[in-house]
Every structure is written in structure tokens, then in C-alpha cells.
Amino acid sequence: MNQYVIAIDQGTTSSRAIVFDHAGNIVSSGQMEHEQIFPQAGWVEHNPAEIWDNTREVIGSALSKANLTRHDIAAVGITNQRETTVVWDKNTGEAVYNAIVWQDTRTQAIVDELAQDGGPERFKQKVGLPLATYFSGTKIKWILDNVEGARARAEAGDLLFGNTDCWVLWNLTGGVDGGVHVTDVTNASRTLFMDLETLQWDQEILDAFGVPASMMPAIKSSSEVYGHVHTSQLLREVPVSGILGDQQAATFGQAAFQAGEAKNTYGTGCFLIFNTGEDIVHSKNGLLTTLGYKLGDDKPHYALEGSIAVTGSLIQWLRDNLGMISSAPEVEELAAGVEDNGGVYIVPAFSGLFAPYWRADARGAIVGLTRFANKGHVARAALEATAFQTREVLDAVNADSGVPLTELKVDGGMVANEALMQFQADILGVPVVRPKVVETTALGAAYAAGLAVGFWKDLGELTANWGEDKRWEPKLPAEEQERQLRLWKKAVTKSMDWVDEDVK
Q1: Using CA atoms, how far apart are residues 355 and 347, in angstroms rounded to an integer?
Q2: For labeling, which of 105, 241, 385, 416 is most exposed (least CB within 10 Å)?
Q3: Which residues does ATP bind (predicted)?
Q4: Which helix (H) or strand (E) holds 478?
């Protein structure tokens, strides 16, 4: 009875449910991809109804594979793609528009308008974030401004907002029949609306965006009982007791609980989080200040984050848009067929450049092409782009923290790529460490949920679960490392200043 915890991982490309045992091992899982909708250049959407349907499906799949029922599950944790914005009618349960995904850049005009009074860092001291298309706030405003009747319905109190954690929780706990409208501090810290010190919505900023406070979910800690699964669902009456945005969940799953600890997650994008403990550290080097986690009534832990928009999705682009490969693992095979990148560099600024540049005017570029370049060089350059971007973010973390990182814990789908991990160690000049359980995002959500109900007693128990699987030591000579970095930085400059009045 109650010997497992289930985590719902609502990601950018798929929704998963993973069952964990007390040792933090995966017992079973279910996964379903959802459609990526691109109505026009720069726009990225998901269908919220499809996401909810898939979530229900993967819960059933994970339970059935392990021959489990709700009686075996102690708690449900949720982790999610952050910033992806859903606005729905609380009376019908229907979204008024597709979910606008974190990568979407349509709100640049809203960003520019808001930045006229105070610049891009107008609210940064209070919320830790610059004005950017990345965050939920501008997406909510776009929906209210552009969907017919949405603003009037919002002002009448009929519309609710949430990132996908909130959408899944609301539906899981009953939807129109008493669904719980709650988010946690980590997701709230990605909206542009939450005061980092008070952990509450800031009315002045909501007013500046024209967003009614009635739309906003209640902000709770990352680990407490928010409600119970509705009686109409498979997991009926099981407590839902943990929520962490995906990158914070991965940090939690890596047991990086203390100040000075960090991890890098390699997924659709790449996200390096550095724990700053109970201190709010404001970056001077292009990083975001965000919530790391908050357990119940304990004090919040803060973090610095370096967000890279395109890493794994660059490999997806080679597969789906160019047809250069038929499956992601083929990239490693192609890259292994050449000695180096042949002078080719790919800057995947599909959504502009995120940390540490924050340049919305940038677009993707492939530079250094000669007749010598072949598919292998392009494949290698695509992998190396992830490592180069991570190096630039880590340099910013080291500058902000004043404490150079001595090793980097890694997780996410791309860490199975041995060539990438070795190059990552080479270009960083520090060891790269992969844990035994690489599904740390789901594991972090499971940990948060389990702590709230006593399934795990404390953080020490979670730290004891962490185990090292493999370590890569840097092998690249220092002069070659510097040469490659110099060429990468030159390539980045070629991607800038592309978008103007004629180019979107």
C-alpha cells in the first residue's frame, strides 16, 4: 500500500507519467508526444485539450505497465514546461486560445511597448526577469488583446490563467467541478508578475500589463497538499502535493539543495540553474533570478538561471525540417564520422538569443561553410552548439557568483550522447557528471510530492538516493579550447541584427 509516488512531467514535446519507488528508481512510465503547432514564423502553440487528454492516457499507461492502482500511490507530483501560457474559461473548462509556448516570439511588440517606460529591465529588480517574449506575462496580454471577447470575459471574472502545471492540476482535481486553481513559487516566478521577496502577485505590474488579478492562480510552496485527484480520475482521492517548474524540478532531482550547487538540463532547450540559497542574487551578466524551491513553510531557496532556447530542438529541426536524419541518435553517428566541425558553426537563434545575450533581433545562422563541409560537419556543429552555449552561460554564472563551478551535474535526454558530453567537458574545462537516474525532472517533482506526505522524511534521505553513473574529464588543450570559443563568439555576432522592420 502507498509504496510509490507518480510524477506527471508535462513537457514541451510530450507528456509523461513516471512511477518512482522509495529509492528514487523508475518503476514504470508512459509517454505521448503532442502536436507542435506553427501558425506562422516565430509562433509556437500547443493544444491544451490534447495535453490534458494525453496526461490522462500516460497516467493509465504508467499504472498498467507496473500493474498498479491508486491504492499503491502515496502522492502525485507535477512538473511542467514553464512560461507556456493557457487561458481558459472556468465555467466551461475550454481554453480560449491554444497554449502559447515559451519559445514563441509574437509578443515582441508588447515587450517594446512596455520597455518604453523604464527599458527592458523595468521590473527586473522586483521579479528577477527582463521584459522578454519568453515569459508568461506578455503572452497573457496578447491573448486578452487579440482573442475576440477575451478581455471582457477576463474582467468579468470568467477566465483563468495558468502555466501547464496549473492547467493539469485544475483538470486533475475536478476542472469545472471544483478544480484547484493553484501554482507554485517556481512557476509563478516565470510570469513577470511575482515579487521575489513577498512571493505574491504584484498589483502594479498586473495593472501595467492590463491583466486582471482574478485570472491568477494562488501561489503556494513547491511541496504541500494542494488538493486531491477528482473521483472521476484513475488516481481518485490521491493527494497532489508537489509542483516544480521543469528546470527547478531537475535541480531538485539532482539533489542540488545547497547554495553553490548547480545542474544543466539538456532537453528542447538547455537550462543551467545555480542555487544561491536564501539569498536573492541579481545578475549583472545576463542571467535570470528565479525561485529554486520552497518546501512548505520553510524559507524559499533562490537561484540564478541561464536559459538557452534551442538545443535538443536543433536536432529535431535537422530531422523534421531538413530531413538530414531520421532519428535523433543518428546525429552522434554522423558527427563521429568526422574529426572536427570542419570550421562549421551553427548558432540556433530560432527564437532570438536567450542568456546571456537576450537579443530578440537574432536569427539562426550556419557559418564557416566551404565546399569541404559535409553532413558530418553540420551534425557535429549542431551538437557543439549546445556545449558552446552552455559554456557562455557558465561563464556568466561564475562571474555573478564569484565562486567558479568545479564540476557540472547534467541530465535530460541529450546526456545519453557520449560525444556531446565529452565535448561539453572539453569546452568547459571542468568534469561533467551524469547521475544514475537521468529522469531528474520527473524525479524532482516526485520528491517534492513525497516530502509533503511523509513518503520521504527529509532532504538527507533524497541526497542519499543520488548516485553517479559516468564522469567525463576535459581533454582539449587550453589553446584549442580558446580558439574554438573565439570562433563560436564570432559566429554568434553573425546571427545578430537580423530582424528589422522588413524581416520577422
Answers
A1: 13
A2: 416
A3: 12-14, 268, 312, 316, 413
A4: helix 478-495
Distances (CA, A) of 405 to 222, 225, 273, 389, 430: 26, 35, 12, 16, 8
Cβ proximity of 249 and 441 under 8 Å: yes
Task: Name the DSSP letter for residue 48.
Answer: H
The residue type found at 343 is: G
Each residue's pLDDT tens digit, 147-200:
999 999 999 999 999 999 999 999 999 999 999 999 999 999 999 999 999 999
Radius of gyration of the chain (CA): 22
Share of the chain above pLDDT 70, in %: 99
Nearest CA to 284 among 125, 119, 112? 125
Binding residues for glycerol: 82-83, 134, 246-247
Longest dimension (CA), the chain: 64
Binding site for ADP: what residues are annotated?
12, 16, 268, 312, 413, 417
Instruction: Give the span between the Cα atoms of 344 and 373, in whole angstroms.
Output: 7
Q: How does pLDDT run across 120-152, given as a tens digit for each residue?
A: 999 999 999 999 999 999 999 999 999 999 999
Residue 433 one-letter amino acid: V
Residue 277 near residue 241, CB atoms below 8 Å: no
What residues form the annotated binding site?
A: 12-14, 16, 82-83, 134, 246-247, 268, 312, 316, 413, 417
Going by DSSP bridges, is the β-strand pair 262-266/239-245 parallel, antiparallel, or unpaired? unpaired
Q: Which residue positions form the known binding site for ATP?
A: 12-14, 268, 312, 316, 413
Binding-site residues for sn-glycerol 3-phosphate sit at: 12, 82-83, 134, 246
Q: Where are the alpha helices (DSSP H) in 349-458?
A: 375-401, 418-428, 440-452
